[in-house]
Amino acid sequence: MNFDAAREEFLALMHTLEEDVPHVQHVARLAAHLFDELSDLHGLGEQDRFLLDAASHLHDIGHSVATTSKGHHRESARLIREHGWQHFASHSVEIIAQVARYHRKSPPDLEHEEFAALGPLERQRVQRLAALLRVADGLDRSHRQHITHCSVEILPGRIVFHLSATNPVPNEITSATKKSDLAQSVFQREITFSTHPAMHQ
User: Fold this and answer.
1) SS3 (DSSP) at 57
2) What's residue 138's pLDDT?
């Protein structure tokens, strides 16, 4: 895969359809950082990180066509699948679409036709990447980018997300806690959040 050309391609689609660019850019940064911080647990590679970046930038494009916000995650997946991609193979497009689809609401389930159609390794990739995107999206629940940094402490039975924030973030904590359901299942650890005031240099 030509990462530079592929990145230009998904960013072009994002800029065409996305209604809140700062939000998805912030979520993408958080998701990539969580990917790096949790690499010892998920065991995924560079291409998976890239697919997560694409899904993070595109997870909300369904708002551009959804009649209500409730179904925008499924519309995002549909728009990703139907786009005329030049630099992504079809199996990569499907991973991106499903990770974007599972950024909210129900986690991946074998009762979902598209998820069940994947092979076991691909299902595992979707679960792990979607787990990270769900938490990252929850951490910008207000769409105000209040959380400036997140470090991760991995303990035997728990993962602690240490958050630096410019403002109180009760909505973010509530949302990220709710959306950590998949991460708790995937990583087999309780997930908690701790906030600290952002330090200004």
Assistant:
1) helix
2) 98
